[in-house]
Structure formats: C-alpha cells, structure tokens
Amino acid sequence: MIWFKPYTIEMLEGLRNANMGQHVGFEFTEVGDDFLRGKLPVDYRTTQPFGILHGGANCVLSETLGSVAAWMTIDSNLYRAVGLEINCNHIRAVTEGNVIGTCTPLHVGRRTQVWQTDITEEATGKRVALSRLTIAIIDQGTLSTQKHHIHLQ
Known about the structure:
Layout: H1 9-12, H2 20-24, E1 27-31, E2 36-41, H3 55-72, E3 79-90, E4 98-108, E5 112-121, E6 127-139
Antiparallel strand pairs: 1-2, 2-4, 3-6, 4-5, 5-6
C-alpha cells in the first residue's frame, strides 16, 4: 500500500462536499493498494453545448482523483499536495452514462508527484481520455490560507 494510512471510501466522502466534486456529481468508488478510482456522470452538469462530455470535466475528474491520491500519500498535518500542471488527451466522445477514472502514480517523490488517470466509459470500458497531473508537495505553512485544511481521523 502506498498510502500514508489506510483510507476508506467513507473517509474520502467528506472531501467532495461543498466543492466542485459535489457540483458535478463526482463519487469516489474504490481505494486500491496503489490506485484511486472515481465516477463522474455524463449529464447536464458535465457536457458541453453539443451534448458530449466536456473536456474540462475530464480534467476535473483527473484533478480530483490525482490531488486526493497525492494527499493520501503524505502526512497532511505537515504537508499539502497542490496541482502544478495537468494534461489531458480527449480520445472519444461520450454522450450518456458515466465515466470511470482510475488514477495511478507514475512518480511519488518527496517534493513532486505525477499521477495518471485513465478515463473509460462505464458501459463499454472504452478509453475516453488519458490525463497526467503533476503535484507539488509543500510545507503546511507555505499557503497563507489555513482555514481549508482538512483533518480526517
């Protein structure tokens, strides 16, 4: 297991409340030994004007999974995981159902991490997008706004 402590889906649920994850209908679905999985609906919240999954929704799915996965590998009392760069290749259009993101580490270092999210259509298993997220691990005191710090038991 690569996580700092043994996390469960129930422990992660609070991370999506009152933020973008909740607004777009995101759900965490599985925590593996070295991956994090989540689901996003393809509906009025996540499609672009032409009725297909918005490329930004793929990025939201990837950023949510990658940021939380990086956070799960660190001592959150001492450090924060913050996004530096995201790249997403949109491979095929989806108009309904759900997409599943499976996030795995490419590099988990002391100061930087790189996470890849493979996004597939739930109904067919076909790849929809592939994304890479680079994370910086910074000291807790580096950010001036401390009011959003999350503590999970």
